[in-house]
Amino acid sequence: MELGLSKVNSNQLTLTQIAKQQEQTSKLMQTIAQRVLESASKAGANQAEVWSYNTIGNSLEVRNGELETLEFNQDSHLGINVYFNQSKGTVSINDLTETAALQGLEAACNIAKHTEPDPYSGLVEKERMAKDFKDLSLDHPDDLTVEDMLEVAKAAESTALQAEHVKQSEGANFYSHRSLSCYANSHGFMGMNRTTRYSLSNVLIGQTDKGMLRDGYYTLGREYSDLLSPQEVGAEASKRIKRKLTQGSCPSGNYPVVFSPEVARGLWSHLLGALKGGAIYQRSSFMLDKLGHQILPQGVSIAEDPFLLKGLGSSNFDSDGVATQQRTIVDKGVLEGYFLSGYSARRLGLETTGNAGGIHNIIINSATKALDEILKELGTGLLVTEVMGQGVNIVTGNYSRGASGFWFENGEIKHYVQELTIAGNLEQMFQSIVAMGDDIDHRSSILTGSVAIEQMTIAR
């Protein structure tokens, strides 16, 4: 009998109902993985690995109190790697059935026969596979119906539209999905992840004598009850529009720059990207040869914690099956480690850090202050709330982005400014951090508050 993934009945749209149907999908994933690995061994592969995922959920958009769009999404994927004496064959397919998987395996084996051996390829050592699977509280299916989601989105938008300065809504969106993922390899390792994610957002338009302004707010979490109320989301979106209504300009020159938490996490992501094994072994990183060196002020440390309950980057194992671990990346400003997969670790002659597939929850540790206090200490400068453009060179560290935000003088915000360029060098910028805010944004796997840089170039 053919094993395959049947389509979920579109009349059953709550995540609780989806979770029940995904119990069969979970069994299917494990069965397919086992049969592919057995067949790979019979085909002569020295090693093999299989990964698959299945994501199901709903999303809708409300505009001016009316349902604009409603989508039911189901996405499945299967990948196979086989190794014949370090010659690797890879296939990736969207058909989660046993027949398709075995056909994919045959294709992967044929590819491997025509691939040059790579001395760094292959599975990570068996003893590094995860054995302890903690409950990280990532899976929280809820009984929310589409009607419930619709009312929540309407409530957020309705709250925002009560403000006179809000001219129209660009839409309120609600999203709820549940995902399954399975990774297995020929070491006998098999791991499953089950996660849920909910989000509510509202984007608004405000009117000034200089034109239209756009802003909004969102909330997200693993569990529906962890989201902000729709009234709080609508009110915050409205507040953010109102802050922009008082507009002005600022001088060009070198001034202190404060990155808001939403923008600061992007700033940290540039540093984290430069610390990834691929960038290091390709020698395409401004963090080359920096291990043991001071890259941040002494008061700033960076930790990775894959075990945060409900964390957006939490996991017991990486995409090599390697056990994840809590560790310190930067200790009192000194760089102590990179982010390495099994492959990049071999290229560098180091040990994997359990980061195949990505970085886990990042916590920026530092003494913090209220944003108002930081602005008072800096006196005059720019609070950046949005950046745009692609002006970041991860090789040299050169940084130049379009920006908008708020000009402050004598520690007080004066007005909104836009169409600016801010520039500097990332290595120097990170060493010039003078303060960290206590306004930590938890809507990401990078947990940071505002970041104040002593000086950057601002140009109109």
What order do the helices and strands come in, and which of them pair?
Elements: H1 15-42, E1 47-63, E2 66-84, E3 87-93, H2 98-113, H3 146-161, E4 166-185, E5 190-208, E6 211-221, H4 230-244, E7 253-259, H5 261-274, H6 277-281, E8 300-304, E9 327-331, E10 334-335, H7 342-348, E11 362-366, H8 371-378, E12 381-388, E13 398-409, E14 412-425, H9 426-431, E15 433-436, E16 446-447, E17 451-459
Parallel strand pairs: 7-12, 11-16
Antiparallel strand pairs: 1-2, 1-4, 2-3, 4-5, 5-6, 7-17, 8-9, 8-11, 9-10, 12-13, 13-14, 14-17, 15-17
Helix pairs in contact: 1-2, 3-4
Return Rg in Å: 25 Å
Judging by the overall fold, what is the CATH architecture of the largest domain? Answer: 2-Layer Sandwich
> Taking all residues together, what is the mean pLDDT?
95
CATH fold call of the largest domain: PmbA/TldD fold
Question: Please, what is the CATH homologous superfamily of the largest domain?
Answer: PmbA/TldD superfamily
Q: What does the model show?
A:
InterPro entries: Metalloprtase-TldD/E_C (IPR045569), Metalloprtase-TldD/E_cen_dom (IPR045570), Metalloprtase-TldD/E_N (IPR002510), PmbA (IPR047657), TldD/PmbA_N (IPR035068), TldD/PmbA_sf (IPR036059). Pfam families: PmbA_TldD_1st (PF01523), PmbA_TldD_2nd (PF19290), PmbA_TldD_3rd (PF19289). One of its GO terms (molecular function) is metallopeptidase activity. This is Metalloprotease PmbA. The chain is of the alpha+beta class. It folds into 2 domains: 15-243, PmbA/TldD superfamily (PmbA/TldD fold, 2-Layer Sandwich); 253-459, no CATH class. It is built from 9 helices and 17 strands. The chain has helices at residues 15-42, 98-113, 146-161, 230-244, 261-274, 277-281, 342-348, 371-378, 426-431; strands spanning 47-63, 66-84, 87-93, 166-185, 190-208, 211-221, 253-259, 300-304, 327-331, 334-335, 362-366, 381-388, 398-409, 412-425, 433-436, 446-447, 451-459. α3 (146-161) packs parallel to α4 (230-244). The longest helix has 28 residues, at 15-42. It is globular, with a radius of gyration of 25 Å. Mean pLDDT is 95; it is low at 1-10.
